[in-house]
Amino acid sequence: MKKFSLVEFSVEHPKLIVVLSVIVTLIFMTQLPKMKTDTNPKNMLPATSDVRVWNDEVDKTFALYEDMIVVGVQNEKGIVNAETLAKIKKITDEIMRIKGVASRDVNSFPTITNVTAEKGTLRVAPLMTDTPKTDAELKKFQTNLFDNPLFINRIISKDGKTTAIYVPLEKGSNGKEIADKIREILKKEKGNEKYYIAGDPVARDTFGAEMFKLMAIFAPIAGMVMFFVRYLMFKDLFLSITLMMDAMMSIVWSMGLLIALGFPIHIMSSMAPVFLMAIATDSMHIFNEFYFRYKEKGNKKVAIIETMRAVGRPVRYTALATAAGFGVLLFMSIIPVKVFGGLVAFGTVTLRILSFSFIPAMFMFVKESHLDRASQGEDITAGIGSKLLRALAGAGTHKAGNTVVIGLILFAISIVGISKIVVNNNMVEWFKENSDVRVADREINKALGGTSLGYVVAISESNDEYIKTPEAMRYIEGLQRHIEKLHVVGKTFSVADYVKRINHVLHDDPKYNTVPDTKEAVGQYLFLFSMSAKPSDLDNVVDPSFKRANIWVQLKTWDAGAMEEVIKAADEYKKQNPLPLKLKPAGIAYFNLVWNHEVLWDMVKGFVLALIVVFVILVFNFRSFKWAAVSYVPLVFTILLIYGVIGFSGKRFDMPISVLSCLSLGMAVDFAIHFVSRLKQRLAESQEPLADALLWTAARPGKGVMRNAVLFAAAFSVMMLAPLTPYITVGAFIVSMMLLSAILTIVYLPALIVLMKNWLFKGGLR
Amino acid sequence: MRYLIILFVMLLPIEALAISAEDVMKKSQAAFHYQGKDFKARVMMKLISKGGSERTRELTMLRKNFGEAGGDQKFFIYFFQPADVKDMTFMVYKYPAKDDDRWLFVPAINMVRRIAAQDKTSSFVGSDFTYEDVSGRDIQDDVHAIVKEEKLGGKDCYVVKSTPKAGDVDYSYKLSWIDKANYLPLKEEYYDRKGELYKVFTADEIKNVKGFPTVTKRTMKNLQSGHRTEVTYTKTDYNIGIEDGLFSERFLKQPPKKWIE
User: Fold this and answer.
1) Could you say which residues from 493 to 532 on chain A have a Cβ atom under 8 Å away from some Cβ of chain B?
2) What ipTM was reported for this prediction?
3) A134, A115: one domain
């Protein structure tokens, strides 16, 4: 028993242990200033991943930008009036002067290329070269604007009340910083216009910035709440500080190690401190037992050693289970998922080492008079808490049948709920309903084609500029009409739209708003267009060798499922219309879809693997398959119930939820391990009947379980006040998970054990 | 002797200032865009993207001056490449201080169309050159100043800063290195509205054709998009006697072989 000697050693040399712990902590602390952060969820997939390589290739082929901000301008009285147009011109000019904005390709009234015919003259030029002022000019502008189908739903809403300024960003620009600068520009404008700023880079970089702020606020608040609740429970400041230090040290050690190894802090690993704080509360069982033992023995040293002997095994196994639950993530394929798993697993191991060294050592410094006072309340028959626990366990023990039937009903309902869960990650929905980001996204999506962007790339294998053929053009046109039938698609445009537009304008006859009949005509039209248009106009939709065409698909939602629908529709179209053109999706919407699949499913895989590993650990712990199966029930039940609720509430299985799944596993199993281990110990030590032993377990180690749960719930309920939904989710999830798994452990374990006692205790109880 | 040197040194800056920035630009315009009575060249343009992919434009350009340097000009352009625009022709009547007149013949539909030329910043046939880069910008549209004089590639140059009077172009100002010997621009730097350098023109080869120094190779590079255009002039000739009648709608549809080959 090596660990035992660690406890004894720590009790014998408490000062040495404390000094050593502090020194190690200080060493890790020196690493913290080197912290690098990476808030871009994109980097969860390595730059070498297929989707990123392909997207980069598409960006390069078609001179596209990875990131685009969409600025919406709305005027209830209509956009086309001298003042609003002047403002749009001014705002566009100023946005183009912001560093990091790809000014040459900003698309707005003053810059977007228009193709028109005026008095027999073909004109390829920006839509609004001069701001119209007179009524005649305004009228002409209005006609131009609504006459070009390329503009409708892209830069002007059908009702004429909303326009958009599309602001592409140079590689590496920070979306939030640029959005903030745009906000400053907009702030100066007075009048009836409303302004909205949306787009993936805004949501992503705003979230990244907010995330660290929130972690810096909420992690300490959660820590403080835990500290006070703990103080209320034990009425001893010194021990509260000890537990706090325990958690802090493990956080510093693991974050220090992560930083020292050169990993940047990703969104996922930024949640690790809060998780470790949560896992640290498991030491509660040591304190819980210590107070009981101290009250019984009255000798500090003896109480400590006996406590560790009693709870050592469950504490070790719970740590093992938690570490394993996170450790399996190391075998996943997504690097930040691995890092996160390794980080928390390391922190958990650290916590346990501290539990067997630092905590016992700290006990030695507590004045005995303090302990006397604090342990007064520890009586399993008297305290209100203990009484309540006995009652709960009593319900399970004495009405086992009913309890299990209720459980089965809840179980069935949960399964229905779970079947409704949608795996989806929508970053915009990480912001609250009425937040700037959400409102902007909603308003622009309502009025225009959409803030999310995907591409469908049509690829020909031949070398003869196949895209220029009328059949390829008509194919692309048909594909667009087919995709546009989806309600998530707000706008599509392609090279075919330019060809049709030029055909129409050259003949000055709407009848010609079609693809011409010869390849030469298509080639000459496009050449004519390129003679005056911005180079990017054509580059964005067709490659120089005319082997590939790029169809822009504006989506009205950032849901990953939207792009999936587009891909399905494209495949359908391809089947119905066989042509030697391959269709491949690309763009940020496609990236999000792949990200969704790879990262979230990786987490799901990890979760399932963790479930299995935890079960194996339980089998080893109890050296019994049966006991492992029984103690597995509260864990599985908790998870099912929570996911059932998630399914019914319509909340998606997104990244925060997926991360929490692993935590829930690691935590919920703890309670069962404590309960069953201590029950078996009790049965071995005393000669009580099973029912009494169950009640004792519920009241004594059960109190530790409950304290642990309440502590946790209290600390994390603070997070429900956060302004970003993932934090609210984390808070709500942890609160309900802890309370549920504690209650389920205390109610259902006794019920199951009573019902299955013949199976569990083969050949009688003893 | 000593006094002579002092006198020379004293005279030097005065002599340098003797020519105004506007005069430098006028002489440059004459040397670069108005040389000879008329002019012909086979122009090969390579449009090269950041990724290295190329598009080609091949054309014959004919130019005739009507009046002094800075005055009216007519251009006739016949396209050889890309292949599907062969036989396309393009004609420009250029007037100082007034929008150009442009016509385009689209052979696939056998139609001549007038094309509006209001926008000075638009790209010339999809290249990094604008129409203004090809045919020249009116001197009085900018405020010119000689910012310094320096050697570029061993040649003494005036460095002229030209700031547009109106915000009608993409750049906020342009620096031109004008060769003092022949007034050809050897380099131009375009600064965007953020004050950052974004486009660079270089004259890569200068040949003497019938006594006229002529830029026969040039490059325009867009530093922001990474796109560049390389232009080579061959079969360059001056004073070949192009008739006025060539610049008509009739010849747009049926360009005379002797001029375009």
Assistant:
1) 506-507, 516, 518-521, 523-525, 527-528, 530-532
2) 0.81
3) yes
